[in-house]
Amino acid sequence: KVKLETIFAKNTAKTGETLRLTAKVVNIENEDVFNPIALIGIPAGMSLQPWQLKELKEKNKFAYYEIQDNYLVVYFRHLKANETKVINLDLKAEFSGKYQAGASSAYLYYGAEDKNWQKGVEVVIN
Hints:
The strands form 4 sheets. The chain has a 5-stranded antiparallel beta sheet with strand order 7-8-5-12-13, with no helix packed on it. 7% of the residues lie in helices and 53% in strands. By secondary structure, the chain is mostly beta strands. The protein has one helix at 50-58; strands at 2-8, 12-13, 18-27, 33-34, 36-41, 46-47, 64-68, 71-75, 78-79, 84-93, 97-100, 104-108, 116-118, 122-125.
């Protein structure tokens, strides 16, 4: 019922730079869905910006979030029929190397058996 797409603006960065990760959560149904969740894989060697997460929540881009290992878990109250929510994350490149995030997924809170999976994004930090 929901689909997740994650993509970097580019796949390389220098240590200390930020790199934009865009996550799109899409309701692929012709009806509202309730309590969708997105698990967004964050590559090792990169970090989320706490101030940005707080700002995104205040702007109602999502209802709640938490960080679990190398995942940003984003909760929504509902998505309207065919609605797309876009979350832009500016990740800071902390350590040089080549990294791949864990697979990302989206699903309904009460429908975890019906997950939409996506291969984790890759990045090279110099």
